[in-house]
Every structure is written in C-alpha cells, then in structure tokens.
Backbone:
C-alpha cells in the first residue's frame, strides 16, 4: 500500500533521513521505533508532504506522491495523527472531528464514523461542544485520533500517540489503537518510543537510528533480536 | 435634568449606535484578516477607500443609477462593490501577501508579521497615491435623498423629547448588522468557515486534514476586504471621502478588533460598536476634535481591565 524507496530528506542543510526504504502492506500494522532524533517524525512529515524529500520516491497504492501537494494527500486516504496532538484549540471537539472529515471519503462516511469514534472514546461525545484547547492531554490525543479516523483513511499514521501522557493514559490510548485495529483491519503505521508495546502489537517493525533503517523484520524476528532486546526492551 | 439634556443624550446614543454598526462591520472585515487569520494588514483602510470609489463609480457610471434610481441604486452599487473587492483582495493575496503568510512563514521570526507590516504599509501607500492620481483629490460622496431626511421617534415624555434617525444612516446600520450576522454564520456554521478557522488555528494540522492553507487564506483575505469595502460604501452615503480616507479608519479598525477579542467575528462587531458609541457620546462632554482621543482613552481602559477583549478567549494557540 505504501512504499518508500531510498528516501533522503531534511531541513535546509541538515540531512535527517538517509536512504530510508520501507513497505507497508494493506491491512498491516507496522511500527517504526527508535531513539529521539532518529528522524521518525521527519519520516512522517515526508510522507505527508510537509517535508520534501531530496532523493527517493514515495508510492501510495502505486501512485507516486512526488507531485501531489500535501493538502491533496489526505484525500488519497492518508491520515496523519501528528506528534504532540496538534488539535485545533479554538474549535470545539465536534468541529475538530468535522475537520477530520474534510476529505470526500470522510464526508460520505461521516455518520457511521462519528458513531464509531464516540463508541470507542465516549469522553469525546461528552465533551463535544468544549473547545479542544481546554481538554487534557489524553483527551486531546483522543481528539487527534478521532480526527484521523473521521477522514475514513486507508492508511492511519500515528506519530507517538503516547508522548507526554501519564503512563496509565498512554496505556489506555494504546488499548484504543488495538481496539481500532481489531475492529477495522485498518492499515496502521505507528511511530513509537514505547518499543515493547509497539513491537508487541505490530505485525512488522522498523528500527530507525540516526536517519537510517538499521533493522527490520516481522514481530517475532525483531523481538528475538539481541540488539533490540538489549537496547530497547531492557533484557 | 432638563428635557433638552435628555434629548441630547438620547440623540448622541442613537448616533453612536448607527455609526457603531458601520464601524462594527468595518472591524468585522479586519477581524477576519487580523483576528482570525492573524495577518497584519495596514492596507485595510485603503481597501475600504477602494470600496467607496467602486460603489461611487458603479452607481454613477455603470448604469445602476438609471436602472435602480436614486434611492435603491446606491445600495445596489455598495453591495456589488463587495464581490469586486473580494476579487481584489483575493489577487493581492495571491500575488503579494501569500509570500509573507501561511506555511512559508511558520519558521520565520514573528511568523512573518514584520514582513506583513512593511508589505501592507507599502500597498497602502501605493493605493493612496494611485487613488490620488486616478480619482483626484476632490471630495466625493454617494448621494442618496435618504441622507437628508429622517425618521422621527416621538415626541416622547409629554411631547418634550423627540429623536431623529437619519434614514440613510438607519438603513446603513441595518445592512451592516445583517451582513455581520451573515458573515458570522458563514464562519461558525459552514464547512468552509470552519476550515478557515482550522487553517488559522494550526496551518500544518489543517494541511493534514486536506485543507489547502493558501487557498483558505486567500478566501479569508478576499472576504475581509469585501466586508470592509461594503462598510465603507455604507459610510460614504453620509460622509464625503477622498483617496486618503483609509488612514483615518485603519487604526480605529485595529482598536475595534482588539477590543472585541482576537479571533472573534462577533467580538469585532461589538468592538466597532463600542468605538462608535464612545465617539458620539464623547461629543456631549468634549470638543469634537477630541473624539479620537476619547476613543483611545476608553480603549486603553478596557484593555487594561480585560486584556483579551470582550469576546477573546485565553486559549493557547499551538
């Protein structure tokens, strides 16, 4: 479904991604793990079109994204739940979700999607008329995820949904992701620093370090890998 | 208190409400550009000036006077100046303003506000001087027979007090209020309006939703120009104007937007309304030359007591 081939990207003179290639098959749950500053967020921004790659190609369902502007990509079915939540603070929870459904697909499926989002995260229904800027971090993360789901995406990209949250809330968010996954069979690309949890639920994983893919494989291979066990799982 | 004093107060109050409604609409236009989209536009007063001349020439030269007559004609011309100034604002944004706003400026110092300040001041100067060349320095006005007749309210209180409402100003106030309500509904209720607000709130996240930021900004800028232009046209049915009139009003517009609270369309309207009321009521106790001083004293007082403005929210923007 998504294929990155030799992507190099960065900010003005600072290269961040160096020859990154990865593949996400339809229906797969793929996790990208790695330390801070490895380029995980830049990788997502490149897929979304906010950062332009200096080399390499991104294919989404066989379509080369090179000449597709960032604002058109969500309409193809790519939903990006950004790092740090990035809700619209002066819009209500409901309006945030409506903005998620800005894509044509999201508009068509608005009613069912909204029901599903509220069933999954009932607190959003309770707070529907509240300004998103006044919510707690965990609630804002739920808005951000709900907003992503509301676009009726083919690929849901989540950038560190547990960042900045209390461990209990982060666990809750993780459970929700697994629920969404079980319910919808949605293709998910997840960036996460909580390596153990991420690798446990994902089908496939990539380890990104200093802008390069240093390790890749399916769930079992990665979890059995000594380097992973030592560096990330503390075993 | 003598009935004469009561009558003066009531008359000033009515004058303030009528002027305030037009100022309110003016401020709503800037409120979209500065309050909602956070773009500093010092040419807003000159957009208003262009709106006045657009209505003036539409009325006199585009056959509107002969088609619609002297009573209805000016209002048709004024409302038509809106779409014209929308296109003007849209293109000015596309050609110039877009270079100092939106996603490009996210990494810049002050989010590109310095560049916006200088660019729009430049645009203002070009429009003022261009206006002088094209329209000349002679005062112009959009004449309607309504501006020299009035509705009388009263006599009230044993025939001692009556208030006169100038018909042209009354109609201008009604059109202003209707336009403000329409625009507020557009911004708060429609998909397009919500997308504009989302784009202003967080441009990058709005892009992730599939909202075209540059297009949203262009549309908001055009709308803001159009709204202020219509307010200018309404003002011109009562006050003569000239190519430099923008400077007199642009500061008042900023004061109104800040008073009302950044980001709130209704707030901007009430900010403008407050300015109209203060301006007219101050004439009861102060010489007319001090009108503007009175406005800014009240402005400072309100900002001191309520820094976020009437309708401002203390929500942090990301």
Residues:
């Amino acid at each position: 479904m998504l294929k990155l081939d030799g992507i190099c990207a960065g900010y003005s003179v600072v290269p961040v991604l160096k020859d990154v290639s990865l593949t996400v098959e339809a229906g797969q749950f793929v996790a990208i793990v790695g330390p801070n500053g490895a380029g995980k967020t830049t990788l997502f921004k490149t897929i979304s079109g906010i950062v332009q790659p200096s080399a390499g190609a991104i294919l989404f369902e066989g379509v080369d994204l090179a000449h597709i502007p960032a604002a058109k990509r969500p309409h193809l079915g790519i939903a990006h739940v950004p790092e740090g939540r990035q809700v619209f603070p002066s819009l209500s929870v409901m309006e945030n979700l409506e903005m998620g459904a800005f894509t044509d697909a999201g508009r068509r499926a608005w009613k069912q999607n909204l029901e599903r989002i509220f069933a999954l995260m009932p607190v959003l229904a309770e707070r529907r008329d509240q300004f998103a800027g006044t919510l707690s971090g965990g609630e804002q993360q739920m808005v951000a995820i709900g907003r992503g789901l509301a676009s009726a995406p083919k690929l849901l990209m989540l950038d560190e949904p547990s960042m900045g949250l209390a461990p209990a809330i982060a666990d809750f968010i993780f459970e929700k992701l697994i629920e969404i996954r079980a319910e919808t069979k949605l293709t998910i690309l997840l960036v996460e620093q909580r390596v153990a949890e991420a690798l446990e639920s994902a089908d496939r994983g990539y380890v990104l370090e200093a802008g390069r893919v240093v390790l890749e494989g399916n769930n079992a291979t990665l979890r059995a890998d000594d380097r992973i066990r030592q560096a990330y799982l503390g075993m | 208190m003598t009935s004469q004093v009561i009558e003066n107060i009531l008359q000033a109050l009515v004058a303030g409400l009528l002027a305030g409604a037009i100022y309110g609409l003016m401020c709503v236009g800037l409120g979209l550009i500065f309050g909602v989209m956070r773009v500093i536009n010092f040419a807003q007063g000159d957009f208003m000036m262009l709106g006045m001349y657009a209505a003036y020439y539409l009325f006199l030269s585009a056959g509107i006077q002969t088609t619609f007559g002297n009573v209805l004609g000016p209002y048709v011309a004024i409302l038509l100046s809106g779409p014209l100034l929308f296109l003007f604002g849209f293109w000015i944004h596309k050609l110039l303003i877009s270079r100092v706003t939106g996603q490009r400026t996210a990494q810049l110092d002050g989010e590109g506000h310095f560049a916006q300040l200088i660019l729009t001041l430049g645009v203002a100067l070009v429009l003022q001087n261009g206006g002088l060349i094209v329209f000349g320095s002679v005062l112009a006005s959009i004449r309607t027979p309504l501006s020299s007749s009035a509705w009388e309210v009263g006599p009230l209180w044993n025939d001692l007090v009556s208030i006169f409402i100038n018909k042209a100003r009354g109609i201008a106030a009604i059109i202003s209020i209707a336009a403000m309500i329409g625009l507020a509904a557009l911004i708060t209720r429609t998909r397009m309006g919500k997308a504009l607000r989302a784009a202003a709130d967080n441009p990058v996240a709005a892009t992730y939703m599939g909202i075209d930021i540059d297009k949203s900004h262009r549309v908001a800028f055009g709308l803001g120009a159009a709204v202020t232009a219509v307010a200018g046209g309404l003002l011109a049915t009562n006050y003569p104007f000239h190519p430099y009139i923008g400077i007199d009003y642009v500061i008042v517009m900023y004061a109104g937007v800040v008073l009302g609270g950044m980001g709130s369309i209704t707030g901007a309207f009430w900010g403008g309304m407050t300015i109209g009321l203060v301006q007219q009521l101050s004439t009861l106790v102060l010489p007319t030359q001090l009108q503007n001083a009175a406005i800014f004293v009240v402005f400072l007082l309100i900002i001191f007591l309520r820094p976020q403005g009437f309708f401002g929210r203390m929500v942090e923007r990301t």
